Amino acid sequence: MQIAGLQKLTLVDFPGHVAATVFTRGCNFRCGFCHNPELVIPERYNPLLDEKELFNFLESRYGKLTGICITGGEPTLQKDCDKFISHMKALGFDVKLDTNGSNPKMLEKIIKDGDVDYIAMDIKANLSKYPQIAISKSEFLISNQISNTKSQKSAIPLLPLSSRHHDLELGGMTRDPLTAYSGSTDLVSSIQKSINLIMNSGIPYEFRTTVCHPLHEVNDFYEIGELIKGADKYFIQQFVKSKHIDSHAQYKPFSDSEIEESKNIMTQFVKNVEIR
Question: Is 201 left (phi over 0), alpha (psi -120 to 50) or beta?
Answer without folding.
Answer: alpha
